[in-house]
Design a protein that fits this description.
This protein is 47% helix and 21% strand. The chain has 258 residues and is of the alpha+beta class. The chain has 2 domains: 12-107, Butyryl-CoA Dehydrogenase, subunit A, domain 2, CATH 2.40.110.10; 110-257, Butyryl-CoA Dehydrogenase, subunit A, domain 3. The strands form 3 sheets. A 4-stranded antiparallel sheet has the order 1-2-6-5, with no helix packed on it. A two-stranded antiparallel ribbon has the order 3-4. It has a two-stranded antiparallel sheet with strand order 7-8. The protein is elongated, with a radius of gyration of 22 Å. The chain binds flavin-adenine dinucleotide (FAD). Residues 1-4, 9-10, 34-36, 79, 82, 87, 236, 239-243, 245-246 line the site of flavin-adenine dinucleotide. Its cofactor is FAD. Keywords: FAD, Flavoprotein, Oxidoreductase. One of its GO terms (molecular function) is acyl-CoA dehydrogenase activity. InterPro entries: Acyl-CoA_DH_CS, Acyl-CoA_Oxase/DH_mid-dom, Acyl-CoA_Oxase/DH_mid-dom_sf, AcylCo_DH-like_C, AcylCo_DH/oxidase_C, AcylCoA_DH/oxidase_NM_dom_sf.
Length: 258
């Protein structure tokens, strides 16, 4: 899913990649940054301007670019989190794709991208909830096994209250996410619900994984501890698929326009 570029992150419409029609092909030039699964993809969906004189909702189109298309190359990017999903920078140098690889209508790509982000924010929330759930389960189990001062650390209220708050946080995010997913399935699509669940679930995952680290004490900081991975992986959640700041813009705008 190639939208983000070096100069177009939160301001996705500032993308600089272009696709110029020549006969029965489009010639794509530009590059994309931080693209999930970029190094292993069979094809990329690439957003590019087909008409710069138009506003984004009329000037951007989306294309399928197959992996072996001449002019399409990529470089793997190293990151400290979510190492199970590779990330790449994609490069398009006079990359010619058949006109039939245009998705939908020319110039409507930005609308398709925004719609897909709406659904994506719900599944992104599910990832955050899964991470938090794993961290919570690890922490709950550890508090019952770890003995200090002659008793399981769960017996210390300072610890069991953390566990209680973690459980509530996860449950709240889960139901917010289910509601957004249900509304999406019913076609009751408003950007608020998906942005709300994304914002809440991603920040919740950071709170819960951070508490799981604290509950594990020193063992959490060891490289082979699962909780440090949950902690690292959740750090990305408030940045990808639209940052928390952008979600708040979407939510606050929606509150006065719906
Ligand atoms: C691991 C990873 C995977 C990704 N996968 C993909 C992918 O598959 N496809 C894809 O297209 N993109 C992908 N991205 C890109 C991701 O969507 C962007 O990183 C994200 O949208 C933020 O853009 P940016 O990093 O350029 O930050 P910027 O937009 O430069 O933001 C920097 C800071 O400024 C804040 N900011 C920006 N504008 C405003 C504003 N108007 N008001 C208030 N604050 C603002 C931001 O919230 C942030 O805190 C991925 C990124 C990462 C890190």
């Amino acid at each position: 899913f190639g939208l983000t570029e070096p100069n177009a992150g939160s301001d996705a419409a500032a993308l600089e990649t272009t696709a110029v029609k020549q006969g029965d092909k489009y010639i794509i030039n530009g590059n994309k940054k931080y693209i999930t699964n970029g190094p292993i993809c069979d094809y990329a969906l690439v957003a590019a301007y087909t008409d710069r004189s138009q506003k984004p909702s009329r000037g951007i189109s989306v294309f399928i670019v197959e992996r072996n298309t001449p002019g399409f190359t990529w470089t793997k990017m190293k990151k400290f989190c979510m190492r199970s999903a590779d990330t790449a920078e994609l490069f398009f140098d006079n990359c010619a794709v058949p006109a039939e690889n245009l998705i939908g209508e020319e110039g409507r790509g930005f609308v398709y991208v925004m719609e897909s982000l709406d659904g994506g924010r719900i599944s992104h929330s599910a990832t955050s909830i899964g991470l938090a759930q794993a961290a919570y389960e690890a922490a709950l189990s550890y508090t019952q096994q770890r003995i200090q001062f002659g008793q399981p650390i769960y017996n210390f209220q300072a610890i069991s209250f953390k566990i209680a708050r973690m459980a509530i946080d996860i449950e709240a995010a889960r139901w917010l996410m289910y509601r957004a997913a249900w509304m999406y399935d019913q076609g009751m699509r408003r950007f608020n619900e998906s942005a709300m669940t994304k914002l809440f679930a991603s920040e919740m995952a950071q709170r819960v994984t951070s508490e799981a680290m604290q509950i594990h004490g020193g063992v959490a900081l060891m490289s082979d501890s699962p909780v440090q991975r949950y902690f690292r992986d959740s750090r990305r959640a408030t940045i990808t698929e639209g940052t928390s700041e952008i979600q708040q813009i979407v939510i606050s705008r929606g509150l006065v326009t719906h």
